[in-house]
Protein backbone atom coordinates (compact mmCIF):
# COMPACT_ATOMS: atom_id res chain seq x y z
CA UNK A 1 0.00 0.00 0.00
CA UNK A 2 2.84 2.38 0.85
CA UNK A 3 4.12 4.76 -1.79
CA UNK A 4 6.37 7.81 -1.92
CA UNK A 5 3.80 10.11 -3.48
CA UNK A 6 2.26 13.05 -1.64
CA UNK A 7 -1.45 12.45 -2.22
CA UNK A 8 -4.02 15.22 -2.16
CA UNK A 9 -6.34 13.26 0.11
CA UNK A 10 -6.34 10.04 2.06
CA UNK A 11 -9.72 8.94 3.37
CA UNK A 12 -9.62 6.56 6.30
CA UNK A 13 -12.56 4.22 5.87
CA UNK A 14 -14.72 3.23 2.90
CA UNK A 15 -18.25 3.42 4.23
CA UNK A 16 -21.01 5.67 2.86
CA UNK A 17 -19.48 8.96 4.10
CA UNK A 18 -16.06 8.04 2.69
CA UNK A 19 -17.39 6.81 -0.66
CA UNK A 20 -19.63 9.87 -1.09
CA UNK A 21 -16.66 12.15 -0.37
CA UNK A 22 -14.58 10.18 -2.87
CA UNK A 23 -17.22 10.61 -5.59
CA UNK A 24 -16.98 14.38 -5.13
CA UNK A 25 -13.19 14.65 -4.83
CA UNK A 26 -12.31 12.28 -7.67
CA UNK A 27 -14.75 14.05 -9.99
CA UNK A 28 -12.69 17.17 -9.37
CA UNK A 29 -9.40 15.39 -10.05
CA UNK A 30 -8.36 15.45 -6.43
CA UNK A 31 -6.05 12.47 -6.08
CA UNK A 32 -7.89 10.32 -3.52
CA UNK A 33 -6.97 7.11 -1.75
CA UNK A 34 -9.30 5.26 0.61
CA UNK A 35 -7.94 2.85 3.20
CA UNK A 36 -10.42 0.33 4.58
CA UNK A 37 -9.66 -2.24 7.29
CA UNK A 38 -13.10 -3.81 7.42
CA UNK A 39 -15.88 -3.97 4.88
CA UNK A 40 -16.23 -1.58 1.95
CA UNK A 41 -19.62 -0.01 2.62
CA UNK A 42 -19.16 -0.11 6.38
CA UNK A 43 -22.03 -1.10 8.65
CA UNK A 44 -24.44 -0.30 5.81
CA UNK A 45 -23.03 -3.29 3.93
CA UNK A 46 -23.94 -5.69 6.72
CA UNK A 47 -27.41 -4.23 7.23
CA UNK A 48 -30.14 -6.43 5.87
CA UNK A 49 -32.40 -3.79 4.39
CA UNK A 50 -32.30 0.01 4.10
CA UNK A 51 -35.75 1.52 3.81
CA UNK A 52 -35.01 5.19 4.49
CA UNK A 53 -32.29 6.03 1.99
CA UNK A 54 -33.75 8.56 -0.46
CA UNK A 55 -34.09 7.47 -4.06
CA UNK A 56 -35.01 3.84 -3.48
CA UNK A 57 -38.80 3.73 -3.48
CA UNK A 58 -38.93 0.07 -2.49
CA UNK A 59 -35.87 0.15 -0.24
CA UNK A 60 -32.53 -1.47 -1.00
CA UNK A 61 -30.39 -4.17 0.59
CA UNK A 62 -27.47 -2.73 2.54
CA UNK A 63 -24.99 -4.79 0.55
CA UNK A 64 -26.42 -3.62 -2.80
CA UNK A 65 -26.33 0.02 -1.67
CA UNK A 66 -22.73 -0.36 -0.51
CA UNK A 67 -21.69 -1.97 -3.79
CA UNK A 68 -23.38 0.77 -5.81
CA UNK A 69 -21.59 3.46 -3.78
CA UNK A 70 -18.29 1.65 -4.27
CA UNK A 71 -18.80 1.26 -8.02
CA UNK A 72 -19.74 4.93 -8.35
CA UNK A 73 -16.61 6.10 -6.50
CA UNK A 74 -14.40 3.75 -8.51
CA UNK A 75 -15.95 4.95 -11.77
CA UNK A 76 -14.41 8.35 -11.11
CA UNK A 77 -11.04 6.93 -10.10
CA UNK A 78 -11.19 6.39 -6.35
CA UNK A 79 -8.35 4.10 -5.28
CA UNK A 80 -9.66 1.81 -2.52
CA UNK A 81 -6.91 -0.05 -0.66
CA UNK A 82 -7.46 -2.76 1.92
CA UNK A 83 -5.44 -2.20 5.06
CA UNK A 84 -5.42 -0.55 8.44
CA UNK A 85 -4.32 2.91 9.48
CA UNK A 86 -2.41 2.54 12.73
CA UNK A 87 -1.50 6.17 13.48
CA UNK A 88 -1.81 9.66 12.06
CA UNK A 89 0.91 12.32 12.34
CA UNK A 90 0.89 16.02 11.49
CA UNK A 91 4.26 16.81 9.91
CA UNK A 92 3.62 20.43 9.00
CA UNK A 93 2.98 20.61 5.26
CA UNK A 94 1.61 17.11 5.09
CA UNK A 95 0.13 14.33 7.20
CA UNK A 96 1.78 10.95 7.52
CA UNK A 97 -0.40 7.90 7.96
CA UNK A 98 1.17 4.77 9.35
CA UNK A 99 -0.63 1.80 7.86
CA UNK A 100 -0.37 -1.96 8.13
CA UNK A 101 1.47 -1.89 4.80
CA UNK A 102 3.73 1.13 5.20
CA UNK A 103 3.33 4.89 5.26
CA UNK A 104 1.15 7.19 3.15
CA UNK A 105 1.57 10.94 2.82
CA UNK A 106 -1.34 13.32 2.26
CA UNK A 107 -2.06 17.02 2.10
CA UNK A 108 -5.45 16.43 3.70
CA UNK A 109 -7.10 13.56 5.52
CA UNK A 110 -10.73 12.64 5.96
CA UNK A 111 -11.58 10.35 8.85
CA UNK A 112 -14.72 8.36 8.02
CA UNK A 113 -14.09 5.22 10.02
CA UNK A 114 -17.63 4.87 11.31
CA UNK A 115 -18.60 2.70 14.22
CA UNK A 116 -18.69 -0.93 15.20
CA UNK A 117 -21.09 -2.98 17.29
CA UNK A 118 -20.38 -3.09 21.01
CA UNK A 119 -19.94 -6.37 22.84
CA UNK A 120 -21.83 -7.32 25.98
CA UNK A 121 -18.73 -8.23 27.98
CA UNK A 122 -20.48 -11.06 29.83
CA UNK A 123 -19.43 -14.65 30.59
CA UNK A 124 -19.87 -16.97 27.62
CA UNK A 125 -19.81 -14.24 24.98
CA UNK A 126 -16.23 -14.80 23.82
CA UNK A 127 -16.31 -18.54 24.56
CA UNK A 128 -19.22 -19.13 22.18
CA UNK A 129 -18.39 -16.52 19.53
CA UNK A 130 -19.21 -18.15 16.19
CA UNK A 131 -20.68 -21.16 17.97
CA UNK A 132 -23.93 -19.53 18.99
CA UNK A 133 -22.91 -15.91 19.57
CA UNK A 134 -23.01 -13.61 16.53
CA UNK A 135 -22.90 -9.93 15.60
CA UNK A 136 -23.82 -10.15 11.90
CA UNK A 137 -27.35 -11.32 11.14
CA UNK A 138 -26.93 -11.06 7.38
CA UNK A 139 -23.85 -13.31 7.59
CA UNK A 140 -24.93 -16.00 10.02
CA UNK A 141 -28.72 -15.83 10.32
CA UNK A 142 -29.14 -18.56 7.70
CA UNK A 143 -27.63 -21.12 10.08
CA UNK A 144 -30.66 -20.81 12.37
CA UNK A 145 -33.43 -22.06 10.13
CA UNK A 146 -36.29 -23.28 12.35
CA UNK A 147 -34.24 -22.64 15.51
CA UNK A 148 -34.86 -20.46 18.56
CA UNK A 149 -32.84 -17.29 18.90
CA UNK A 150 -32.20 -14.53 21.39
CA UNK A 151 -31.56 -11.00 20.13
CA UNK A 152 -30.03 -8.61 22.66
CA UNK A 153 -30.74 -4.89 22.25
CA UNK A 154 -33.63 -2.54 21.65
CA UNK A 155 -32.42 0.09 19.20
CA UNK A 156 -32.93 0.41 15.44
CA UNK A 157 -30.24 -2.16 14.60
CA UNK A 158 -31.58 -4.74 17.05
CA UNK A 159 -35.14 -4.43 15.77
CA UNK A 160 -34.11 -4.36 12.11
CA UNK A 161 -31.91 -7.42 12.44
CA UNK A 162 -34.42 -9.31 14.62
CA UNK A 163 -37.01 -8.80 11.89
CA UNK A 164 -34.50 -10.10 9.33
CA UNK A 165 -33.79 -13.15 11.47
CA UNK A 166 -37.48 -14.12 11.47
CA UNK A 167 -36.88 -15.25 7.87
CA UNK A 168 -35.04 -18.19 9.39
CA UNK A 169 -35.78 -18.60 13.10
CA UNK A 170 -38.86 -20.29 14.52
CA UNK A 171 -38.98 -17.85 17.45
CA UNK A 172 -36.97 -14.93 18.78
CA UNK A 173 -36.79 -13.67 22.36
CA UNK A 174 -35.68 -10.05 22.25
CA UNK A 175 -34.02 -8.93 25.49
CA UNK A 176 -34.18 -5.17 26.04
CA UNK A 177 -32.49 -3.61 29.06
CA UNK A 178 -34.88 -0.67 29.32
CA UNK A 179 -37.29 0.05 26.48
CA UNK A 180 -37.35 -0.24 22.69
CA UNK A 181 -35.80 2.85 21.15
CA UNK A 182 -36.36 2.30 17.45
CA UNK A 183 -38.15 4.23 14.71
CA UNK A 184 -41.95 4.06 14.66
CA UNK A 185 -41.96 2.10 11.42
CA UNK A 186 -39.71 -0.57 12.90
CA UNK A 187 -41.67 -0.67 16.16
CA UNK A 188 -44.86 -1.17 14.15
CA UNK A 189 -43.28 -4.06 12.22
CA UNK A 190 -41.99 -5.51 15.47
CA UNK A 191 -45.41 -5.40 17.13
CA UNK A 192 -47.11 -7.22 14.30
CA UNK A 193 -44.46 -9.93 14.00
CA UNK A 194 -45.72 -12.99 15.85
CA UNK A 195 -42.32 -14.69 15.87
CA UNK A 196 -40.73 -12.11 18.19
CA UNK A 197 -41.41 -11.80 21.91
CA UNK A 198 -40.03 -8.59 23.42
CA UNK A 199 -38.89 -8.73 27.04
CA UNK A 200 -38.44 -5.24 28.51
CA UNK A 201 -36.37 -4.46 31.59
CA UNK A 202 -34.20 -7.55 31.21
CA UNK A 203 -30.44 -7.46 31.62
CA UNK A 204 -28.36 -10.08 29.83
CA UNK A 205 -25.94 -11.62 32.31
CA UNK A 206 -24.53 -14.83 30.88
CA UNK A 207 -24.54 -17.00 27.78
CA UNK A 208 -24.52 -20.65 28.78
CA UNK A 209 -23.50 -23.57 26.60
CA UNK A 210 -23.33 -27.34 26.74
CA UNK A 211 -21.37 -29.67 24.48
CA UNK A 212 -19.79 -26.72 22.69
CA UNK A 213 -23.14 -25.11 21.80
CA UNK A 214 -25.19 -22.29 23.26
CA UNK A 215 -28.25 -23.58 25.10
CA UNK A 216 -29.58 -20.60 27.06
CA UNK A 217 -29.19 -16.97 28.04
CA UNK A 218 -29.43 -16.03 31.69
CA UNK A 219 -30.65 -12.57 32.64
CA UNK A 220 -32.25 -10.57 35.41
CA UNK A 221 -35.73 -9.10 35.49
CA UNK A 222 -37.24 -7.34 38.53
CA UNK A 223 -34.34 -8.61 40.60
CA UNK A 224 -35.03 -12.23 39.71
CA UNK A 225 -33.02 -14.57 37.51
CA UNK A 226 -34.67 -15.40 34.20
CA UNK A 227 -33.59 -17.92 31.56
CA UNK A 228 -34.20 -18.07 27.84
CA UNK A 229 -33.50 -21.41 26.13
CA UNK A 230 -31.95 -20.73 22.72
CA UNK A 231 -29.82 -22.09 19.90
CA UNK A 232 -28.06 -18.79 19.27
CA UNK A 233 -27.63 -15.19 20.36
CA UNK A 234 -27.31 -12.11 18.15
CA UNK A 235 -26.02 -8.97 19.88
CA UNK A 236 -26.89 -5.41 18.80
CA UNK A 237 -26.49 -3.20 21.85
CA UNK A 238 -25.13 0.01 20.41
CA UNK A 239 -22.18 1.39 18.58
CA UNK A 240 -18.65 2.38 19.48
CA UNK A 241 -16.55 4.79 17.40
CA UNK A 242 -13.63 3.43 15.42
CA UNK A 243 -11.02 5.84 16.78
CA UNK A 244 -8.49 3.44 18.28
CA UNK A 245 -5.86 4.57 15.77
CA UNK A 246 -5.98 8.07 17.31
CA UNK A 247 -4.72 6.88 20.69
CA UNK A 248 -1.34 8.47 20.01
CA UNK A 249 -2.78 11.58 18.34
CA UNK A 250 -3.94 13.85 21.18
CA UNK A 251 -4.09 16.81 18.77
CA UNK A 252 -7.41 15.39 17.53
CA UNK A 253 -9.98 16.03 20.21
CA UNK A 254 -12.55 13.36 21.01
CA UNK A 255 -15.75 13.83 22.97
CA UNK A 256 -16.51 11.98 26.21
CA UNK A 257 -17.73 8.93 24.26
CA UNK A 258 -14.71 8.77 21.94
CA UNK A 259 -16.32 10.37 18.86
CA UNK A 260 -14.34 13.00 16.94
CA UNK A 261 -15.22 16.66 17.43
CA UNK A 262 -15.28 19.06 14.50
CA UNK A 263 -15.98 22.66 13.56
CA UNK A 264 -18.68 23.87 11.18
CA UNK A 265 -16.48 22.90 8.21
CA UNK A 266 -16.16 19.33 9.54
CA UNK A 267 -12.49 20.00 10.30
CA UNK A 268 -11.10 18.32 13.42
CA UNK A 269 -8.81 20.06 15.90
CA UNK A 270 -5.88 19.05 13.66
CA UNK A 271 -5.77 21.44 10.68
CA UNK A 272 -6.22 19.60 7.38
CA UNK A 273 -7.87 16.59 9.00
CA UNK A 274 -11.63 16.37 8.47
CA UNK A 275 -14.27 14.00 9.80
CA UNK A 276 -17.59 12.77 8.41
CA UNK A 277 -20.22 10.16 9.16
CA UNK A 278 -20.99 8.10 12.23
CA UNK A 279 -17.59 8.61 13.84
CA UNK A 280 -18.20 12.37 14.12
CA UNK A 281 -19.42 13.68 17.45
CA UNK A 282 -23.17 14.45 17.30
CA UNK A 283 -23.65 12.58 14.03
CA UNK A 284 -27.21 11.38 13.50
CA UNK A 285 -26.03 7.84 12.61
CA UNK A 286 -27.99 7.68 9.38
CA UNK A 287 -26.65 6.54 6.00
CA UNK A 288 -28.29 9.53 4.31
CA UNK A 289 -26.65 12.01 6.66
CA UNK A 290 -23.30 10.22 6.40
CA UNK A 291 -23.45 10.60 2.63
CA UNK A 292 -24.36 14.29 3.04
CA UNK A 293 -21.50 14.84 5.45
CA UNK A 294 -19.15 13.10 3.03
CA UNK A 295 -20.16 15.50 0.26
CA UNK A 296 -19.80 18.51 2.56
CA UNK A 297 -16.40 17.35 3.77
CA UNK A 298 -15.25 16.90 0.17
CA UNK A 299 -16.16 20.49 -0.71
CA UNK A 300 -14.45 21.82 2.42
CA UNK A 301 -11.38 19.73 1.66
CA UNK A 302 -11.27 21.21 -1.84
CA UNK A 303 -11.25 24.69 -0.29
CA UNK A 304 -8.54 23.62 2.14
CA UNK A 305 -6.38 22.18 -0.67
CA UNK A 306 -6.78 25.34 -2.74
CA UNK A 307 -5.65 27.45 0.23
CA UNK A 308 -2.85 24.93 0.85
CA UNK A 309 -1.66 25.31 -2.78
CA UNK A 310 -1.74 29.12 -2.57
CA UNK A 311 0.40 29.14 0.57
CA UNK A 312 2.90 26.59 -0.77
CA UNK B 1 -2.03 -28.04 -8.46
CA UNK B 2 -0.64 -28.27 -4.94
CA UNK B 3 -2.98 -25.91 -3.15
CA UNK B 4 -6.66 -25.14 -3.20
CA UNK B 5 -8.68 -22.33 -1.65
CA UNK B 6 -12.26 -22.88 -0.53
CA UNK B 7 -14.50 -20.14 0.88
CA UNK B 8 -17.67 -20.90 2.79
CA UNK B 9 -20.22 -18.09 2.40
CA UNK B 10 -23.86 -17.10 2.73
CA UNK B 11 -25.97 -14.99 0.35
CA UNK B 12 -25.91 -11.64 2.15
CA UNK B 13 -22.55 -11.77 3.92
CA UNK B 14 -20.58 -8.59 3.23
CA UNK B 15 -17.45 -9.98 4.90
CA UNK B 16 -17.57 -12.87 2.41
CA UNK B 17 -17.63 -10.33 -0.41
CA UNK B 18 -14.47 -8.78 1.05
CA UNK B 19 -12.63 -12.11 1.17
CA UNK B 20 -13.56 -12.84 -2.46
CA UNK B 21 -12.53 -9.32 -3.48
CA UNK B 22 -9.19 -9.74 -1.71
CA UNK B 23 -8.46 -13.10 -3.36
CA UNK B 24 -9.41 -11.71 -6.78
CA UNK B 25 -7.09 -8.75 -6.14
CA UNK B 26 -4.28 -11.23 -5.43
CA UNK B 27 -5.14 -13.24 -8.55
CA UNK B 28 -5.87 -16.37 -6.54
CA UNK B 29 -8.69 -18.65 -7.75
CA UNK B 30 -11.03 -20.21 -5.23
CA UNK B 31 -14.02 -22.49 -4.88
CA UNK B 32 -17.02 -20.87 -3.19
CA UNK B 33 -19.39 -23.01 -1.14
CA UNK B 34 -22.59 -21.07 -0.53
CA UNK B 35 -24.05 -22.69 2.55
CA UNK B 36 -27.55 -21.41 1.85
CA UNK B 37 -27.48 -23.20 -1.50
CA UNK B 38 -25.67 -26.21 0.00
CA UNK B 39 -26.85 -26.56 3.61
CA UNK B 40 -25.68 -30.17 3.53
CA UNK B 41 -22.12 -28.80 3.71
CA UNK B 42 -22.62 -26.77 6.91
CA UNK B 43 -21.34 -29.67 9.03
CA UNK B 44 -18.20 -29.79 6.87
CA UNK B 45 -17.48 -26.11 7.63
CA UNK B 46 -18.24 -26.66 11.30
CA UNK B 47 -15.78 -29.55 11.38
CA UNK B 48 -13.07 -27.56 9.62
CA UNK B 49 -13.42 -24.34 11.61
CA UNK B 50 -14.96 -25.47 14.90
CA UNK B 51 -17.64 -22.82 14.64
CA UNK B 52 -20.55 -21.66 12.54
CA UNK B 53 -19.95 -18.12 11.29
CA UNK B 54 -18.90 -17.07 7.81
CA UNK B 55 -16.73 -16.39 5.96
CA UNK B 56 -14.40 -19.32 6.46
CA UNK B 57 -11.45 -19.62 4.10
CA UNK B 58 -9.60 -22.92 3.86
CA UNK B 59 -6.23 -23.13 2.14
CA UNK B 60 -5.41 -26.79 1.66
CA UNK B 61 -2.01 -28.07 0.60
CA UNK B 62 -2.41 -31.52 -0.88
CA UNK B 63 1.34 -32.04 -1.17
CA UNK B 64 1.90 -31.74 2.58
CA UNK B 65 -1.62 -32.76 3.57
CA UNK B 66 -1.91 -29.58 5.63
CA UNK B 67 -4.64 -27.02 5.98
CA UNK B 68 -4.91 -23.37 7.04
CA UNK B 69 -8.32 -22.14 8.19
CA UNK B 70 -9.16 -18.42 8.45
CA UNK B 71 -12.38 -17.44 10.19
CA UNK B 72 -13.90 -14.08 9.28
CA UNK B 73 -12.50 -11.24 7.18
CA UNK B 74 -8.94 -11.09 8.42
CA UNK B 75 -6.58 -9.86 5.67
CA UNK B 76 -3.40 -10.24 7.68
CA UNK B 77 -4.21 -13.88 8.50
CA UNK B 78 -5.24 -14.52 4.90
CA UNK B 79 -1.99 -12.99 3.72
CA UNK B 80 -0.05 -15.43 5.90
CA UNK B 81 -2.16 -18.35 4.67
CA UNK B 82 -1.45 -17.62 1.02
CA UNK B 83 2.04 -16.15 1.55
CA UNK B 84 3.91 -18.86 -0.27
CA UNK B 85 1.34 -19.21 -3.03
CA UNK B 86 1.39 -17.92 -6.55
CA UNK B 87 -1.41 -18.25 -9.06
CA UNK B 88 0.53 -21.11 -10.63
CA UNK B 89 0.55 -23.06 -7.37
CA UNK B 90 -3.17 -22.90 -6.91
CA UNK B 91 -5.47 -25.49 -8.37
Structure description:
- The complex is a heterodimer of chains A (312) and B (91).
- With 312 residues, chain A is α/β, with parallel strands linked by helices.
- Helices cover 25% and strands 31% of the residues of chain A.
- Chain A is built from 7 helices and 19 strands.
- In chain A, strands 1, 2, 5, 6, 7, 8 and 19 form a 7-stranded mixed sheet that branches. In chain A, strands 10-17-11-12-13 form a 5-stranded parallel sheet, with helices on one face.
- In chain A, a hairpin with a 4-residue loop joins strand 6 (85-90) and strand 7.
- Chain A is elongated, with a radius of gyration of 21 Å.
- Chain A starts with 5 loop residues before the first strand and ends with a helix.
- The relative contact order of chain A is 0.18.
- Chain B starts with a strand and ends in a 10-residue tail after the last helix.
- The relative contact order of chain B is 0.27.
- Chain B is globular.
- Chain B has a 4-stranded mixed sheet, with helices on both faces.
- Chain B has helices at 14-26, 42-49, 75-81; strands at 3-9, 31-34, 56-61, 66-71.
- Chain B has 3 helices and 4 strands, in the order E-H-E-H-E-E-H.
- The model of chain B has no long low-confidence stretch (mean pLDDT 89).
- The chains are: A alpha/beta (312), B alpha+beta (91).
- The A-B interface holds A 37-41, 45-46, 48, 61-63, 66-67, 82-83, 100, 129-132, 134, 136, 138-143, 145 and B 10-18, 21-22, 25, 35-36, 39, 42, 49-55, 71, 73, 75-76.
Topology:
The complex is a heterodimer of chains A (312) and B (91).
Chain A: E1 6-12, H1 16-27, E2 32-36, H2 42-45, E3 49-50, E4 60-61, H3 62-75, E5 79-82, E6 85-90, E7 95-99, E8 102-111, E9 115-117, E10 133-134, H4 137-140, E11 148-152, H5 156-165, E12 171-176, H6 184-191, E13 196-200, E14 202-210, E15 213-221, E16 224-229, E17 232-235, E18 239-241, E19 273-275, H7 287-311
Parallel strand pairs in A: 1-2, 1-8, 2-5, 8-19, 10-17, 11-12, 11-17, 12-13
Antiparallel strand pairs in A: 3-4, 6-7, 7-8, 9-18, 14-15, 15-16
Helix pairs in contact in A: 1-3, 1-7, 5-6
Chain B: E1 3-9, H1 14-26, E2 31-34, H2 42-49, E3 56-61, E4 66-71, H3 75-81
Parallel strand pairs in B: 1-2
Antiparallel strand pairs in B: 1-3, 3-4
